[in-house]
Design goal:
Strand order of the largest sheet: 1-2-3-4
Helix content: 10-25%
Largest sheet: 4 strands, antiparallel
Number of strands: 8
Pfam families: DUF4265
CATH topology of the largest domain: Alpha-Beta Plaits
Organism: Intrasporangium calvum
CATH class of the largest domain: Alpha Beta
Order of helices and strands: EEEEEHEEHEH
Protein name: DUF4265 domain-containing protein
InterPro entries: DUF4265
Number of domains: 2
CATH architecture of the largest domain: 2-Layer Sandwich
């Protein structure tokens, strides 16, 4: 994770978490140093962004193209990062985004065989949206 120091033991996440649940870009984390100097996160303060992850199907219509998957989310104001070695895209859904439009795109993409998806960090508004079409 990339982060910037904000104050004593507090850091702001500066990229989208690929493998962490419950954290999003922009969140504030409290981290304390262990004996070896490695920081360990002890709490996360939600700052409003969501994290969603896509596993872009190599055998699907996108043929594993992460850049194309990312481009599909530009129209709904979502950016992200790709990790080609895992076929993974981490999406950063900013506070104020049209969550219904984002979820519709996510769910329809899965139904169309473009990707599988999971929630990394979401809020109650996201959870309240229907995803009945999800496979």
């Amino acid at each position: 994770m990339w982060a910037v120091h904000v104050e004593e033991e507090v850091y702001r996440l500066e990229n989208v978490p690929f493998f962490v649940r419950g954290a999003a870009c922009g969140d504030l984390v409290q981290a304390v140093p262990e004996k070896d100097g490695v920081l360990t996160v002890v709490s996360v303060k939600d700052e409003g962004n969501l994290t969603l992850r896509l596993i872009v199907r190599r055998e699907g219509p996108l043929r594993g193209n992460l850049a194309t998957a990312l481009e599909m989310f530009e129209s709904v104001g979502v950016s992200g990062e790709g990790a080609p070695q895992w076929g993974l895209v981490a999406l950063d859904v900013p506070r104020g985004a049209d969550l219904a439009a984002v979820k519709a795109l996510i769910v329809s993409g899965e139904a169309d065989g473009l990707w599988h998806w999971e929630e990394g960090a979401v809020n109650d508004e996201w959870r309240a949206l229907p995803d009945a079409d999800r496979n």
